[in-house]
Design a protein that fits this description.
Elements lengths: L26 E6 L10 E6 L5 E5 L4 E4 L4 E4 L12 E4 L5 E5 L2 E6 L2 E4 L1 E2 L8 E7 L2 E6 L4 E5 L2 E2 L10 E7 L2 E6 L3 E5 L3 E5 L7 E7 L2 E6 L2 E6 L4 E5 L6 E6 L4 E6 L2 E8 L2 E9 L3 E6 L5 E5 L4 E6 L2 E3 L9 E6 L5 E5 L4 E5 L2 E5 L11 E4 L5 E5 L2 E6 L4 E5 L11 E5 L2 E6 L2 E6 L2 E6 L12 E5 L4 E6 L2 E6 L2 E5 L9 E8 L2 E6 L4 E5 L5 E4 L10 E6 L4 E6 L2 E7 L5 E7 L10 E8 L3 E5 L2 E5 L13 E7 L2 E3 L9 E3 L6 E6 L11 E6 L13 E4 L5 E9 L11 E7 L7 H73 L6 H28 L6 H16 L5 E6 L4 E3 L4 H20 L3 E9 L2 E8 L13 H12 L3 E6 L5 E7 L4 E3 L1
Parallel strand pairs: 10-14, 60-65, 66-68
Antiparallel strand pairs: 1-29, 2-3, 3-4, 4-5, 6-7, 7-8, 8-9, 11-12, 12-13, 13-14, 15-16, 16-17, 17-18, 19-20, 20-21, 21-22, 23-24, 24-25, 25-26, 27-28, 28-29, 30-57, 31-32, 32-33, 33-34, 35-36, 36-37, 37-38, 39-40, 40-41, 41-42, 43-44, 44-45, 45-46, 47-48, 48-49, 49-50, 51-52, 52-53, 53-54, ...
Helix pairs in contact: 1-2, 3-4, 4-5
Length: about 950
Amino acid sequence: MKYGVRKVGHFIGVLIFLQLNCKAQHFSLRQYSSADGLPLSQVTSIAEDSLGYLWVGTLGAGLARFDGREFKHYNTFDGLASNNISEIIIDNKKQMWICHPYGISKYFGGTFKKIAIEQQVKLGKIKSLFCWRDTMRYTTDEGRLGNVVHDVIQKSEKPNDKTVLLTWHDNNKAMLVLSDSSVMFLQKKSYTVSYKSLFHTILNVFELEGRPIVQSDKGYFEIDFLTNALKPYTVTFKNQFLFYDSMRTSYWTHSKNIILQEHKAQSVTRTDTILSDALVSQIVKDRHGTIWIGTNGNGLYRYARQDFSKQKTQGNAANVVSILQDRNDATWIGLLNGGVRKFYNGKEIHYVTNKAKPDRVLSIKQNTKGEIWAATNNGIALYDSILNTFKLFSLADGLTEDIWGIDFSKETMWAATPNGLVEFKDKKLVQRHLVSKEKMETPVYAIYCHSPNEAVYAATDEGLNRLIKGNVESIKIPMIGNAIIQSITLHRDETLLIGTQGAGVCIFDLKSGQRRMINTKNGLPSDLIYFAATDKEGFTWIGTERGINKLRLNRANEIEENFYYGSDNGLSGIETNQNAYSFGKKKYFGLVDGLYQFNDDSNIPTKSAPLHFTDIQVYYGQYPLPSGNQKPLSFASNRNHLTFFFNKVDGLLSNPIQFQYYLENFDKTWSLPSTQHQSTYGNLPPGNYVFKVKTTDIHGVWNDPPLEYPFTIRAPFYQSIWFVLLFICLLLALTILLLKWQIRLRAAQAVKLEQIRFQEKDLLRKELGRDFHDEMGNQLTRIINYVSILKMKNVADSAGDNNQLYNKVETSAKLLYTGTRDFIWSIDPNNDDLLNVFFYIRDFADDLLREKDIKLTIENKASTSLRLAYGTSREIILIFKEGITNIFKHANPKNVNLILELHDAIATITLRDDGIGFELNTISLSNGLRNMKNRAGKINSSLDITSQPNGGTIVQLTIPAQIKKIP
């Protein structure tokens, strides 16, 4: 078969105990039993579906579906025909068929279906199922062959009246072993070939390197479907064949109740023992190369590659806190309380610098001279290759005993101590450096020497400090806060990786000062960082107390790949240490329980399982998933609480797969990476939505494009278009009515206020005019009378000059009285009437012109009057008094006409005489005419004056529409 092999039978014995050669292979064997959720330890069949789920059939407990984390059980209550499973087949349409001893079940679209049996068919006990030309076929214990058509089991017959002893199938090809020592090939046409001349008995049929092979009592034969013949075939394995692992070019065989794995390199065959002492029912290899072994009584086994393999050391040395791979390919490890161990050419050597005090070796480095130095709690130790021992530099050499880390800048070694930095050169103390401006002595937790600018970067309680030529500079990184820096390494070019206790990893650009944080929000399992370093391939490795992450960052230092390694990947200790990593020919990591080697199998081809939805719940109730070109689901407005369940099965990855999701038209951005397999949205407003989810592949890269689920939340009736339009129309009508009512109300209020204002103004003007008239008139009259009395008394006694003076005072008082009378008259609101103003002018003209016997003609052509604005009447009076006075003094006329006209609320007052006239150009600048023009402009009126010598003069004032007509 494409992804597996036929059953190998219950007669094969296998072992629960694993014996592996770690130098040759990096694989682990894990057993799943009822304690892990497997419903029964008697496994009869195994199959992997298109979504990557592993289906496990049991003898009496139904089916179990394994997603890499847990088992989900199915039995007769879910639609199975029986809880006894004998075989599981995945056909070309990705449908799963479950064979029971006396029936068949089918699983497709998330549900189980019992396959009906054609009437009057005596089925008997079903032996096997296989798919041929998109048709399911079955064989019985009696050797009969039958078809399943339209999900109905049809009658079975013996092909060519012969009994079917054994079957083999692969895609659209199949072979039947018949009881007359012949085989029937099933392709487009059926052919029967006898094998009597070749061998007597067929023991097994299997696939080897893409070829169907027959194992017989006379050896092995290849099936040639082109010629429908059996040809001799030479095998390279020694024992009974089970299946061929093309990914690792190894043969799985069995011998004397033991399962073996045979590797042939050139002419040498290496055999590894896998298991013994258990009955195997089926062995299947999934798409990732993981091998699953089903047993009768011992459950399910998973045989998979291991990402990390723990290295054996003498005494099982634990707590590896530093690692070095030197130029001679020797590996050095420093222990927390066990000195230094060296591994070279299969040998292990143990070194200590102080037998009385256990060495804590926190750092091991090699300088440009090839010297190997170790930072210990007893000082700095230098390896002497001649004496094969370490020489210690400590208190006697001016150093402190406790050295926390070392690094090299050209020929100078810098050491991090609890009391600051120590500069050490030519095996002598050069200088102690204080890296804090506030404290005399401060501990340095991590150190890094940057050769291009000869800078030493030191991590203290105050953060990151830089020492250049004796000058200390503090580098502020607000994102780190008060977290202690435990690791400083070069990432690329001028960029540092800074690992912290509690804030994650900071990527710091030395030139631009730009900073980017990598922490739990970006997918790290913890923000407590022990180390962060970049290897030669460009991968960034981050060690935490919860395992190791392998990241690929782009040039913008954004995460493109993120792969997590934990206990399921071989790191049984999980917690890493500060300087415990090495990227030489091999990648080594030190954990609290020992030394681990990374097994890079990234070149092994694998096929990732697809991301898919497992369920959609609306208010905690199930809802069918859309399939094919089905239209997006539409939910009522009150069914707006949705939970999406999604999954991706990857047998290669034991660590949790990360997901990101995004609801289009609702979320603003993608969610943070999470291992949760569900997302809930409540109280969604009406609208069209698309739920999107994406996940990482086997390399930690986010898949593209994401999986989508479109749906619609329908709007309630009161949010429908017709309802909204109707509501808007009603609202507009009410608004218009309200506005009209408010306008009318405001207009009425404005009219009322205006009336009140006019009444108050009129009242004020009346009181002012009355008071002013009484007071001013009385006083002026008294002055005139007093002057007259004085004049009479002093006529005889006074000289002519005094009389002239009295005359002037009397004349001025009379003029003042006359002018004041006009002003008082205009103050009275009753005189803001056009006719009253006209009559006032008439009276003035009549009194004045009568003195020279000038005839005055009055013409009133206005049927109604106008209400004049306040102040207008006074200006009109002054204009015409000026005009009448000029006629009196200069014109010498015989006749004067005064005319009032009113058309469409525009009034015209005309003063005409037949006097001597004048040239306008000669007197255009006279004060009188200029004042008349100015007064007309004040009241927004136009004044026209026409005259010619001996032709008389016309003065015409046009007054625009006033407040209102007066009937």
